[in-house]
Amino acid sequence: VQLQASGGGLVQAGGSLRLSCAASGRTFTSYNMGWFRQAPGKERVFVAAISRNGDSTYYSDSVKGRFTVSRDNLKNTVSLQMNSLQPEDTAVYYCAATRALTLTAGQEYYLGWGQGTLVTVSS
């Protein structure tokens, strides 16, 4: 699966952004999907995941209640709605796919990493 994230940009603290990830191929529903981010000078970390049919989600504690992950299996897309953004949310955001049976934060289970999209939150 090939993935491409988009929708990043510059936003003030307290603002919102919606990221999208487009998947190529005909097997999109075979994958749970995840979002990760990498802040400057730091390791890439898990943000959120969504199940194949979209009925289950999983969030890191740092974004729970502020971010919402969703997917559209007809359009082969997964989205990340980010509200109440803070400067510490500044990072390059990546989407990835996993065949794992359960939702997981483990990066080793994900594939299809594409180019990320940069989100910058100013204070």
Structural summary, described in words:
It contains no helices and eleven strands. 0% of the residues lie in helices and 49% in strands. The chain is mostly beta strands. The strands form two sheets. Strands 2, 4, 5, 6, 9, 10 and 11 form a seven-stranded mixed sheet that branches. A four-stranded antiparallel sheet has the order 1-3-8-7, with no helix packed on it.
Percent of residues in helices comes to under 10%
For the report, how would you describe the main beta sheet? 7 strands, mixed
User: What general outline do the C-alpha atoms trace?
Assistant: globular
- Secondary-structure element sequence? EEEEEEEEEEE
Q: Report the mean per-residue pLDDT as an integer.
A: 96
Number of strands: 11
- By secondary-structure content and strand pairing, the structural class works out as mainly beta
Indicate the low-confidence ranges by residue numbers. none
Radius of gyration: 13 Å
Q: Estimate what percentage of residues fall within beta strands.
A: over 45%
What's a concise summary of this model?
Helices cover 0% and strands 49% of the residues.
Features:
single chain, about 120 residues, mainly beta, four-stranded antiparallel β-sheet, seven-stranded mixed β-sheet, globular
Topology:
Layout lengths: L2 E4 L2 E4 L4 E7 L8 E7 L5 E7 L6 E3 L7 E6 L4 E6 L8 E8 L11 E2 L5 E6 L1
